[in-house]
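Anyone? Bumping this.
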Amino acid sequence: MALPKHIGFIPDGNRRWAVNRGMGKQDGYAFGIEPGLQLYEQCKALGIEEVSVYGFTQDNVKRPSEQKHAFSQACVHFAEEVTRRGCALLVVGDEDSEQFPAELRHFRKRHSSGIKVNFLVNYGWKWDLAGMKQGDIRSSDVSRLDMVVRWGGGRRLSGFLPVQSVYADIYVVDDYWPDFMPEHLDQALEWYSRQDRTLGG
Amino acid sequence: MALPKHIGFIPDGNRRWAVNRGMGKQDGYAFGIEPGLQLYEQCKALGIEEVSVYGFTQDNVKRPSEQKHAFSQACVHFAEEVTRRGCALLVVGDEDSEQFPAELRHFRKRHSSGIKVNFLVNYGWKWDLAGMKQGDIRSSDVSRLDMVVRWGGGRRLSGFLPVQSVYADIYVVDDYWPDFMPEHLDQALEWYSRQDRTLGG
């Protein structure tokens, strides 16, 4: 089976998941950390070389402060735990902003080796592309994406790494992100292996 | 029903359609013109303000010359006929290349008024974004896309206007483009009206 080298993940649906369970919208994010670690272990075991994960965006920080605090904390916890588990973490996002968690500043450069994890934190597609005015996009250390998997049913990229996504096959899972199951990735990979890829040639 | 203001169309599958009918790959493109005109009339009647259509890309011109000649001719015919029918045509693509059809040079600027049709001819996403080094993307006269409809079953954007597509809802039709039916657009619009759009906020 042809495996993608680089997969993007859009873990959407935390808020809808929480509301469905009678919790506040902001309570959903904490339930997204453990699924993220499971997915990370699954990718590592499969031999995937690089993954990119949507944390939060510069659009998302327009939300109410309790949500902002919750998703920012969830991102810090995920980043710390995934590093402890031996990945080569790169955080991609605008660190010249008070919305950027100070704990993650160290990871704006990739330090270690191992499976590459690119984590988008206070990321904005405009911020990313504006780097071209100084020579190159700001996410230039992130390679081309082979596949993007999105949870929560939305059939769109929502500004996720527009340059790296140009040829990516997009797979949508209708389940909300906190309901992640390893079968979701299995099915996405099986689907990916059946796609015809010509890159326009 | 919430109508999109701006829809992108990726009319893929001409070659597979031709091969399935025992024709040469290059013979499929001519069968894509009439469906394009039908779709244009349908959009105009619905009151859609702007449409963007994939003609061919700088990647596509790496194909055998008989294919290149066929899709280039089909694009010229489509552009001429759609202009005759009163649209405000803008051709977006690298005109500083022998692959760019001379007949379309006049349309690199939008002249007339009416429903806006942006037609991507010898377009490349790298060419488009490289404009930022001189101040702005080269497709800056093309507005943000609300929805992208792709025929031929591929679940990817293939470099289609990456900046304008960041928030677009992507609808995929499995039929090949020459088998276009008005019901495809009806179904896409019905689906679009049910999508939840927050633009990240």
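Late reply, but here is one note on the structure posted above: The mean pLDDT of chain A is 95.
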